[in-house]
Amino acid sequence: MHRPGRTLALLSFLGLLAGPATAVAQGTQATQAIEAPPPPTPEPTLATSPRLKELVPADVPPGTKFPAPEVVVVLSLDVSAEGKVEKASVESGAGEPFDAAALSAARRFEFEPGRLTTGEAVPVTVTFRLRIQEPVAPPPAPVKLTGYLLERGSRLPIPGVPVSVRVGDEVVARATTDGSGRFQVEAPAGEFRLVASPPDRQKLDLLVKAQAGEVREENYLLESLGGPNETVVSASAIQREVMKDVLTAEQVFTVPGSAGDTLKAVLNLPGAARAPFGAGLLVLRGSAPGDSKVFLESQQIPQLYHFGGIRSTYAPAFLQSVEFVPGNFSVDYGRAQGGIIDVRIRDPRQDGFHGQADVNFYDVGVEMEGGLGNGWSLGGAARRSWIDTVLPLFIPKDANLSFSTAPRFYDFQFIATWSPDASQKLRIIFYGSMDRLVGLFDKPMRDPTITGQLDARVSFYNLQGQYTRTFSPSLRQDTSVVIGLQEISTQIGPQYFFDLNLRRLSLRSTWVYDFSSQWELRGGIDAEMGRASISVNLPNSTGPNPLPPSSLPQIGANITTMYYSPALFAELRWAPLPNLSILPGLRANWFSDISQWAVDPRLLARWEVVPGTELRGAVGMYQQAPAPQKTNVATGNPFLLPERSLQTSIGLGQKIVDGVSLDLTGFYKALTQQAIANSASNYDPNAPRYTSTGTGTIYGLEALLKVAIGDSFAGWLAYSFQRSLRTDPPDVQRPYDFDQPNNLTVLGTYQLGRGWSAGARFRLVSGNPSTPVIGSVFDSATGVFVPEYGETNSDRLATFWAIDLRIDKVWTFKDWTLTLYLDTQNVTNQKNQEGWTYNYDYTERTATTGLPILPILGLKGEW
Amino acid sequence: MNRPLAVSLATVLLISAGCTDDFSPQSDLLGLRVLALVADPLELAPGASVTVRPHDHVPAGSAVVSQRWTFCPVSAGSVAAYACAVPQCEVELAPAADGSITANPTELVAACLGFTGGSIPPSVPDQLLTVFRYRVATDQAETRDAVLQIPQWTRQPPPDPNLPPVILGVEIGGIPAQVGVPTPPLAVDGILPVRLLIDPASVQTYVDAAGVSQTETMTGYFYTTGGTFSAGITSGVDTTTDLEGTGFLPGQATAEVWVVALDLRGGQALVGPFTVPLGQ
């Protein structure tokens, strides 16, 4: 009901009353003397009521219990002549917090004001019924499930069958099998039922468990009715690792303390060691940094981090998920004896034109994507650091190093996808990274050879083509080719330089054939070849501890070399029972730089003992060629053997309650044939620089407790106990450089409502081993003091701990969203020790500390 | 990234990080120090003798009580703090009155490796990196160790022997400095430029172990017992650093300044001490 403004109404009424009365009085007299006056002009009345221009939704705190799916709050609103709400009150409420939310929203309403018959805008009080609906939280990244309904025995496709995805009794997705029996659905993460009822065949009613963002392909073999077997059949879920975790793009962006970095987010999982500040190293399950590899869609990324190790080289603009396998990975991957990370990317969207822009303390990035029709979609992203503009502010005035080009980086990615039909897809990715810095040592550093110019340029470009095709329900393939260029050019002072030009060609092709529901064969080729031109003159340190460069012999070379590393792999999946999978596999890899074959047998078993409880075990050999500088004839020893790691792990996955799960994994790795420096080569030119006599032992236990409380809270606790030990004969066993016995990470994010979310991360990590300096000797020829080290890694740095906080605020507009985020690392400004700094003769030392408090403020718009 | 590169860059950056620490610089002579071990010649032909002379800075009020020399035919390098790779062959040498030693490394190497009569086994490389180790101690219980690695050619003389740098002169406050003649004074919070001139003709080119042709990098080390140098190390044949008038000890009337020129291949030349009056 609309009521005119009271003041105007009253005056109007009085006027109306007064008018006729006066007129009557005048009229009485007038009849005696003059004619009756003309009737008064009618007072203007309300012609149009205020009209709401745009509804502002009411925000209620997350987790609020709604008494009904929709709650109505009746409000009385005083709408001004400008259409603003000047006063709001509750006429009939629904209780708190609904009433407060309704009033808050109503005060932001904008109206087309009420108007009189004269057209004049006037204030009007209106009654407004505001409906508040129970919010639907954005779902986690869906599971993309491709399946085939096939007749058991003949494996003939079963076309035209409706397939539904159900959560409880609710159908959340539907599809119909095509002529090849194929269907494709997007299902919610977690648990859901897959249901199909083909005529004259068994009914399919299968409980599926999958992680958010997972991509799966499965066959479902259904028996004709009348057969002896009435039970529902299914293909076993094919997860081929003991410990594998998947982070979605959303998780990568919002994990506190990682500033939305692709790789940094993953390093919060158990099995990943904490790398020293600025090092940008990947240390998985105690293995050396070079022993683990990072892939983009199963093709290796040549450079992981930009300068300083703060940002990884692949921006998460088109990230779908990141798979993390710290050890015992499948035969698909090789040339690594540590663990792997595989970055999965999404296709550009085809529903219109979209993009995003992100500006933060580190860098600025933009991304755009869209569909071109006929199955094509295109997307591109680019990012440029601007830490170089703020870095000079932090360099002390009396520092000896000045930058003419402060460290800066660029990275980019372009993706084109063509999917002409459901059975095939072509994807082309072009991505790369560039880092540059130019500095000047104003005067010689403590070492006289470190003087003059410092110039470093590191870049890579990869052109990657990927083609997937499903030929039949039994046969599918995935092939990718990469042409890559990597360039490094570094000059340190007048003497030292390193230049690399590496051109690489990689081919990977994987074929999968399903013999039956119990047997599946997977095999393929993983080949890599390249041409490397290297020009180098650097100090050659064969020991594990840092030494003044001028005290070391220089090693120089100017070489061009070709290398070939083809590999074949095959894996059999045998499912003797519905809940048991056994996967034996074999990989054979040729390493041309050492002219050696490496044959890696691997075995994995998974057994779901009871629903919610799964046991996993794996054992396998993992071999890699030693690092190129160790095998090159000019700088190393080409007669080395492949480095080996025999890995064993056993795991338990347990669902505790809904939203709470626990994964425990124990592992043991035996390292042999490790390439180690030969100290005899320091004085005997005939002695090989490296020998394959190093060994190591790594063992530990990892725990991952995941907690998700509805849509309001998600987080995890990751703990690793791990010992990593090495023996370089003739020395005794010692802790490895990244032996971190205890590594605890606890993090979580809470949705506060109204677009706000807050997260925190706590880390507690054992200090890295360090080697004490027990003396020094003056090298008269160079004028420097050379440290004399004690037993390698016999000391240990202080324990590391830090707290990071993150706050996000999202504003949702009609066509776009704006996110303001503040990710503050090390909020307590803890001065964590990363090493020691010594004086010139090593008689005094002070702790070198790492990252101070670092707030990263960012603004991201998405449309 | 290639590991050597990573190590090098990391080393550089870490060194950079350390350059603003609060430690006393190397150029401040606060105690016993070995300034140089000067050898003549710098590379040894088969059968040649060598004399190595130490130049120590002994603080006032201290006296040297021992000077010990050892010789090793094969150095294990800086990775082992120049330990002897063949410990049983490390021999002690008797110093002369001035602390120097004269030795014939060829004889010592032959005795160690067991070859005599001029026949050198093929397994012995053409060049051995011998190491002379020096230890000096004072009556104040201060001890310093220093080493000098000297290439010993085993079959033929060095084709292009290394020669030491030649210091043409040192100017302090714009005036050529002379030993025993006071330089211009250094005032409190004042600055006194110290210039080192090295003979460009003494800069040699050579082929390094990697087969790359290199030119010697002449480096100057500056030391003082009073005040502090803005740069204790310079690079080039004509370089200048400033002696700053800070950190004078109570009652200190003069400072002694030494300058050592290095070619970073073992060649050294030392001049000083120059007496710098300290102002109030």
What this model shows, in words?
The complex is a heterodimer of chains A (863) and B (280). With 863 residues, chain A is mainly beta. In chain A, the strands form ten sheets. Chain A has a 22-stranded antiparallel β-barrel. Chain B starts with a helix and ends with a strand. The relative contact order of chain B is 0.17. The chains are: A mainly beta (863), B mainly beta (280). Chains A and B meet through strand 27, strand 28, strand 29, strand 30 and strand 31 of A and helix 1, strand 1, strand 6, strand 7 and strand 15 of B. Strand 44 of chain A pairs parallel with strand 7 (143-153) of chain B, so a sheet runs across the interface.
Largest sheet of chain A: 22 strands, antiparallel, barrel
**Rg of chain A, nearest Å:** 35 Å
List the total number of helices of chain A: 6
Total strand count of chain A, please?
Answer: 51
Q: Strand order, main sheet of chain B: write it out.
A: 9-8-10-16-14
Count the E strands of chain B: 18
Fraction of residues of chain A in helices?
Answer: under 10%
- Based on CA inertia axes, which overall geometry of chain B fits? globular
Q: Summarize the amount of helix of chain B as a percent range.
A: under 10%
Residue windows where pLDDT falls under 50 for at least 5 positions of chain B: 1-8, 14-19
Name the beta content range of chain B.
Answer: 35-45%
List the defining traits of the structure above.
heterodimer, A: 863 residues, mainly beta, 6 helices, disordered N terminus, B: 280 residues
